[in-house]
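User: Hey, quick favor. My workstation is busy. Could you predict this chain's structure for me?
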Amino acid sequence: MICPAYNRGKAIVSTLESVRRQSMKDWELIVVSDASSDDTDDWVRRIAEEDRRIRLLRTRRFGSQSGPTNIALGEAAGAYVAYLDHDDTWEPDHLRLLTEAFDAGAEFVATRAVNVDATGAVVSTAPPLSMCWHPELQLMSPLFENSCAGHTAGLAEKVGGWRESPVGLEDWDLWLRLSDAGVRCTTYLAPTVRVLQDPGTRQNSLACDHRHEIARFDSVIAARAALRALFDPRHAAAELLATRKDVVRWYTSLADSGELVFPHGWRGGADALEAAVDEQLRDDKWRGLVIERHTEHVSLSQVLPTMTAEHAARYSAFFRRTMRHQQEFLCDLLPAGSVVR
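Assistant: No problem, here it is.
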């Protein structure tokens, strides 16, 4: 197990204790400090003195989880690797569940997360649909946090390891490269991870450099009018219906192909997909929209938290090819010829 850490201080104790409470006892935890400048390392050393299964590695300052994690991968001795962020915790059966899946032949496994605030109160739970898995779904969504995931030893290195990036989403990038390499993911509905949702965490402060371009205009005025139209509550029902049609058709087609991975614990098979889609659909579809000036036009785009431009381009191409009802909704709502097809 690998826990990259930076300036977490005494709060890291709860994370380490959640590992010590695991029902499966045969494990090793490498806490890899990204040159922490507070007392994080001291707290880890105190716990490690009590429990020899925990050890501390200290690296130079990377500023992201990728560099320290890659170093820890080179030190890990187990047959399986699981990841744990320094501000998340595991429920007691998390490692047991992952190990059972690995013993059954899985290479890549993920469980469900419960999102909590700084007080530990539950804010939300990952919807069941988010635990269905397919390469197309992995392309279009991160699906799960790295604290939820594990894989067989050596698998990450085979696809180039964790890539460093100032824009974050290193886990989504790795999961996508695993998928592109033919690795399939086994998932569970059991909520075995508690993920901290806090405005002060790194994921909430990263700049996102890539875009999904929705439409092009001749002026900023026209782009702003389009933005207002997308947020007009009078159009919300039509937009939701278009999204629902696309998503239901998408998941149903994946299920019909026999390639959709349903999570362990899922009930109802493909017949339960429509209800699961309804549970997951949100009313904040167009969050993260930006208006940007270019030499010959003005773009209305959606910010994509992808690591690479290549991933963003694949996202956009898939959306335009597959989400036909949403594209039609945009064409009906926005000025003729403005929607990027």
